[in-house]
Amino acid sequence: MGTRQNKLLGRTPLSWAADRGHEAVVKLLVEKGAKLESKDVRFSRTPLSWAAERGHEAVVKLLVDKGAELESKDKYRDQAPLSWAAENGHEAVVNLLVEKGANRSLKMRALVERRYRGLQRGKRGYEVVAKLLAEKGAEQESKDKIL
User: Fold this and answer.
1) Are the beta carbons of 78 and 106 closer than 8 angstroms?
2) What span, in angstroms and rounded, lies between the C-alpha atoms of 139 and 16?
3) For the segment 111-132, what is each residue's pLDDT rounded down to a tens digit?
4) Can you say where the ANK repeats lie in this chain (predicted)?
5) What CA–CA distance (Å, rounded) separates 128 from 35?
6) What is the residue-averaged pLDDT of the chain?
7) Residue 2 confidence class, pLDDT cut points 50, 70, 90
């Protein structure tokens, strides 16, 4: 079974399956030897990063349980999977990653500033995620590369 990167975006089948939330496909690819830490060419993101951003809790759990690196950061925005999940308001994924040992010293200020409209309106779970991270000890004054 091919696990090589495609030429257009430099993403592996595992990356695409994780991004789309296809748990059964992710499981099969991992069992067949797909590399958990394969990074796409364009953004240097892992399958765990894509699954966390999209809020695919079952896929995130599967990848973490199989040994995916919790702190792997992309080159585009210097974000780990926890930061991607938090930025997109995925409370269950944030909680799972924190419980599995993800570093909570993510860029909380950047999360709030980048998503301030969502936080102010209480949309898409941003308020809940921000509160959860604050309770778990996230650094509230750190900055990301973009700000």
Assistant:
1) no
2) 31
3) 555 555 444 545 556 667 777 7
4) 9-41, 43-75, 77-109
5) 33
6) 80
7) very low
Give dist(CA 58, CA 125) in Å, integer: 18
pTM as predicted:
0.78
Distance CA(125)–CA(92), nearest Å, equals: 10
Q: Structural domain boundaries of the chain?
A: 13-135
Both structure tokens of 43: 């953004």
CA distance 37 to 82: 16
Overall size of the chain counted in residues: 147
The per-residue pLDDT for range 59-84, each reduced to its tens digit, is: 999 999 999 999 999 988 888 999 89
Give 47: exposed, middle or buried? Use CB within 10 Å, 0-12, 13-18, 19+: buried
Burial class (CB in 10 A: 0-12, 13-18, 19+), 28: middle
Distance of CA 20 to the CA centre of its chain: 13
The single-letter DSSP state of residue 30 is H
**CA dist., res. 122 & res. 139, Å (int):** 21
Residue 51 main-chain phi, psi, to 5 deg: -65, -40
Ranges of beta strands (E only) in 27-107 are none
